[in-house]
Amino acid sequence: MACSSGACQSNNCYKQEEEEESEQNSIASILDAKRGTESNDPQQSLCIKCKANSPISCTGEDVRFCADCFRSNLYGKFRLAVSSHAMITPSDKVLVAFSGGPASRVALQFVHEMQNRAQKNFDASRDRSLPVFGVGVAVIDESAIYPIPAHEFDEAITEIKLVVSNLAPPTKELHIVPIENVYASDSVDKRNRLKELLDSVTDVTGKEDLLLHLKMLSLQKIASENGYSRLILGSCTSRIACHVISAAVKGQGYSLSANIQYVDARWDTPIVLPLRDCLSQELNLLCRVDGLKTVELLNGPSSGINHLVSSFVALLQEENPSRECTIVRTAGKLTPFHFNRIPEISDCNVPLATRRRQKRFSLQPKESISSESFCPICISPLNKSEMQTLSGFGSFQSSDTFSPSCCPSCRFQILPKDPHSMEHFISLLPQPLAAQSKHDIGGNLNLLREQIQDFLLSDSDSET
Amino acid sequence: MAEAESKQRKPGARLCCICSQRRPALKRPKTLEQICRECFYEVFEEEIHQVIVQNQLFKPGERVAIGASGGKDSTVLAYVLSELNRRHNYGVDLFLLSIDEGITGYRDDSLETVKRNEIQYGLPLKIVSYKDLYGWTMDEIVKVIGLKNNCTFCGVFRRQALDRGAAFLKVDKVATGHNADDIAETVLLNILRGDIARLSRCTSITTGEDGPIPRCKPFKYTYEKEIVMYAYFKRLDYFSTECIYSPNAYRGFAREFIKDLERIRPRAILDIIRSGENFRISTSTKMPEQGTCERCGYISSQKWCKACVLLEGLNRGLPKLGIGRSRGLNNEEKREKKQSNGISAIESKACGTLDF
Ligand SMILES: [Zn+2]
Ligand SMILES: [Zn+2]
Ligand SMILES: [Zn+2]
Ligand SMILES: [Zn+2]
Ligand SMILES: [Zn+2]
């Protein structure tokens, strides 16, 4: 049995019994706080990789790499994720979602470095055949939901602008977009409509999760309006570990594997997670070591179930520094969905090498089960047994059909309990939530079509 | 209609959400509904009955042993199963099956409780002791190996002792008192330790159908708090001291987490179980091939079963055999070691509370 996630670099992954002990991968050796096995080694004061420089000295963690080796190790994980999942190709234009926190700050930095190298190669090459991918940065302004004093907000925006403009050329376009822009541009009083929508959700966790879905939708909107081909998130191992546990706790066992993969192509603009194999401790450390400026102000507080889960995972991680990796690897063994890969590239402009690389790594659909319906709120694929009887997916304005089309988790924590408020709740939702879901069904049709393509006559082309 | 009726009353004098006749006596932990005692008994028992019927746990004429530790879960299970068997004519023969690990001050007291249950519920009781089966009591084992690895012995020996007892009683299956909290906890622990094979099976209501005697969990969806409440209101006679040999901190984290979750969202326990049932796990993740132990004939994926390896160590004066780093008898000693360590590190239930 092969490892179901490309992430696993230790080849022991199929031996379940040995997992607890076999996690001696890079993370354990970098942040090995307790098991000082080489305590009497005369070389203990040197970096364990290059054995030349002294390790990073910092309080709290016992880092055994020097700054250079630490950085190149982390960048290596990023680059491997990018190349093995075809996350960025030369013809792409990628949008980095920047929250101001360390994870997305590192994502921005690494994408920038990669672009910088590509630019150098481009400048050095004679024929200039390989274009350099474009980079943009998106910041979602949530002040409509989490109000902050105007001067603090302005300061944060200035900081963010500085971070982006200080990156060496090529210039990166910065999109700072208020969350209420998730509504169509012609809608009136977006801000209050959004507030009213969120206020109608009584469960604190539900409110937080709905806001997260809206944020993702906003990012997608920015990406498609500005012609981006990829959306890059800074989700790291620690963050994904928390997602695994909270999804389990919210009863989302079926759809769990959809949201934790390197690639999520459910959307118009596929979402990619190049920092999936990096721990938040590592990302924090890199920001400190390299003086990468972070701006925490724009992020809302965490509460309810999500808060409980992150303190639980933090506690476990403290007890065992490889716990987060184990959690993510467990979830990685669940069967992913067909959309958890970049759609097959048939474009001849893509260099052969890239196409070959794609072939070599596991981009082929595994046992991915084709799934036809998605929750219109959280876009989770729906389990047949969890679906309530649906009659005609088209009629989204009717409150009778909306609720059964949602996943049980959204039904419980987001939708109003009282059927009378349902109509109003739906009217407050941004249009794309419904449209997105419809689109996905269309996308799915295309996917099904792909499988039977050879048997279709050319006349039927007009149907799609 | 019930709502309208209660609205006419004064706000202070609320009535049971279910019958709208009696004063509520409790807030139901699973739903937070305020209900009366009679309605609580009714919904508590009816839910278990529905689980039994829907999952076809028992067939008429079957002999069923209830794993009885004297603790609240198995005491309530014995009481409720004998009630339901009578009320709904399951037509099964029920027995109590207890394990005497030989833990002074703990098991001897809890066995007294089981013996009283035998009389109270009129169910025949069989006690299987470690001393008889293995020649060692837990007290003697702890004297030799100390407190550190004793749960490895607890778990391995108890599971096998239960099968032996069940064989003696010639029962068709064993019903255990694992409740919803236990199962939710096991789901989480299997995620935390990366055990995908166990993760795929731990929410099954019936397990071990390939083993000597299948086990089933009629309390799969029953909340621990409701079991305690039921035992309290019915004044059931149970023993409530934790096993004196249970030192694991790790398990404590998950337990505590589930309690915290339940506090802010009672349905989280059921949600975790539902997640566990719906995980997309490809069927190719199998457990190791089962054979039989060359020494005692018990099912084992190794040459010798775990109990025999542990016993051999004890008898040869090498008690760490099978748990420590010493060399062992099986070719795959390393694997065996890891497995037993895994069990001891994150056993889902306190060893004294009947984890079969
Ligand atoms: Zn170095
Ligand atoms: Zn949903
Ligand atoms: Zn009542
Ligand atoms: Zn024990
Ligand atoms: Zn044996």
UniProtKB/TrEMBL annotation, chain A:
GO terms for biological process: protein urmylation; tRNA wobble position uridine thiolation. Keywords: Cytoplasm, tRNA processing. Its main location: cytoplasm. GO terms for molecular function: nucleotidyltransferase activity; sulfurtransferase activity; tRNA binding. It is found in: Cytoplasm. The keyword Cytoplasm applies. GO terms for cellular component: cytosol. InterPro entries: CTU2 (IPR019407), Rossmann-like_a/b/a_fold (IPR014729). Pathway: tRNA modification; 5-methoxycarbonylmethyl-2-thiouridine-tRNA biosynthesis. Belongs to the CTU2/NCS2 family. Plays a central role in 2-thiolation of mcm(5)S(2)U at tRNA wobble positions of tRNA(Lys), tRNA(Glu) and tRNA(Gln). May act by forming a heterodimer with NCS6/CTU1 that ligates sulfur from thiocarboxylated URM1 onto the uridine of tRNAs at wobble position. This is Cytoplasmic tRNA 2-thiolation protein 2. It comes from Tripterygium wilfordii (Thunder God vine). The lineage of its organism: Eukaryota, Viridiplantae, Streptophyta, Embryophyta, Tracheophyta.
TrEMBL record, chain B:
The keyword Transmembrane helix does not apply. GO terms for cellular component: cytosolic tRNA wobble base thiouridylase complex; mitochondrion. Its main location: cytoplasm. GO terms for biological process: protein urmylation; tRNA wobble position uridine thiolation. Its EC number is 2.7.7.-. Residues 64-247 form the tRNA(Ile)-lysidine/2-thiocytidine synthase N-terminal domain. Pfam families: ATP_bind_3 (PF01171), zn-ribbon_14 (PF16503). Keywords: ATP-binding, Cytoplasm, Nucleotide-binding, RNA-binding, Transferase, tRNA processing, tRNA-binding. It is an enzyme of class 2 (transferase). It is found in: Cytoplasm. Pathway: tRNA modification; 5-methoxycarbonylmethyl-2-thiouridine-tRNA biosynthesis. InterPro entries: CTU1-like_ATP-bd (IPR056369), CTU1_C (IPR032442), Ncs6/Tuc1/Ctu1 (IPR000541), Rossmann-like_a/b/a_fold (IPR014729), TilS/TtcA_N (IPR011063), tRNA_thiolation_TtcA_Ctu1 (IPR035107). Residues 291-321 form the Cytoplasmic tRNA 2-thiolation protein 1 C-terminal domain. GO terms for molecular function: ATP binding; nucleotidyltransferase activity; tRNA binding. The keyword Flavoprotein does not apply. ATP binds at G67, A68, S69, D73, I99, G177, D182. Belongs to the TtcA family. CTU1/NCS6/ATPBD3 subfamily. Plays a central role in 2-thiolation of mcm(5)S(2)U at tRNA wobble positions of tRNA(Lys), tRNA(Glu) and tRNA(Gln). Directly binds tRNAs and probably acts by catalyzing adenylation of tRNAs, an intermediate required for 2-thiolation. It is unclear whether it acts as a sulfurtransferase that transfers sulfur from thiocarboxylated URM1 onto the uridine of tRNAs at wobble position. This is Cytoplasmic tRNA 2-thiolation protein 1. It comes from Tripterygium wilfordii (Thunder God vine). The lineage of its organism: Eukaryota, Viridiplantae, Streptophyta, Embryophyta, Tracheophyta.
